[in-house]
Fold:
Amino acid sequence: MDFLRLSDVDVQGRRVFIRADLNVPRDDEGRISDDTRIRASVPGIRDALARGGAVMVTSHLGRPAEGRLTDADTLAPIASRLGELMGREVMLIRDWVNGGAWHSALTSGDLVLLENCRVNPGEKADSVELAKQMANLCDVYCNDAFATTHRAEATTHAMARYAAVACAGPLLTAELDALDKALAAPKRPLVAIVGGAKVSTKLTLLRTLAANVDALIVGGGIANTFILAAGGRIGQSLAEPELVPEARAILDAFPGKLPVPVDVVCAKRFAADATPSIKPVDAVADDDLILDLGPQTVALLLPLIANAGTIVWNGPVGVFEFPGFGDGTRALAEAIAASAAFSIAGGGDTLAAIAKFGVTDRIGYISTGGGAFLEFLEGRTLPAIEVLEERGREARERSRG
Ligand code: ADP
Ligand code: MG
Structure:
């Protein structure tokens, strides 16, 4: 890999801007339900501080509306958890793009957290103007957010082009090394499990994924789209009807590789106390919501997991947060833990499910990435990594010439 690493950059007395991924899952009261991503970001921050950097950290959290910071979008809970992990108070800065008194005062050994970067107008659109403003805040830009490397946004992409120095943090580097090692020549059969709620962003990846793996297990909203494509019924379930032709094309192109659920667990309301009812897919009613895989489907999937050589997993196969709808995800998690296969799991909610079912220690590698992890698997170039590599090659040429 051609990029500069944070550990190779002299940060003494310099302002270091770290784009971390602190986008952690939260419960209904807004409490952090899994802090893996915050913990994973600590080593990069500590390293920059220990070597005399003046450190600013930012992240996105959720999907806020641009230009408006609401209580649901603030990084305040992240600042306090990061403070606990760092053993020091972490000041949270709002409206930080143009600097200010906080920025003039920033010196070696200081650490501040900059509010939700996705609230800044232009962030999602990868605005050059915004990127230049942010690049002016720092001497060194460091991307340590593996989980967002598949997105070209101002803090993950354009900013890397305009900062004086651009480098990769230790988490990003470690993730790429581990994934490369595991997936360069995976032990077969290679089984992928793709579930969750972000249907459109994931469904489009499935065709390439299907070509690369030996079996593709689907759950969540993705499974519902495939049930539709196979001629089944899904009632009011989360799905993407306009992608049914694509789903059907995948089923036709890879016969037998993608088991479509035969039974499901339904509810009449999307609520924690909804009554679960198990049905074959052809008995799903118009007012049903499919919220988990059924036991017969799970029984068909377990041998695939038991016999796998490598398992990659992103996305819970059901609404595991609700007590009546977590059995499918629990069964798969336990089967992965019991399997001799090398397993890699990634995704904010996937990690929360793994933690909930107590199998974290028995997963081969825990990645902080969800979508990025899938795109890596698919063999795509991740834009945030590509720009770091460009900058790395430039830096090397300059030092040579
Ligand atoms: P990750 O964060 O691991 O990448 P996603 O964010 O895509 O995963 O999806 C996780 C969410 O998907 C979970 O909160 C879960 O409740 C939800 N989910 C799973 N199955 C369904 C379903 N059938 N209908 C609605 N939501 C679902
Ligand atoms: Mg998620």
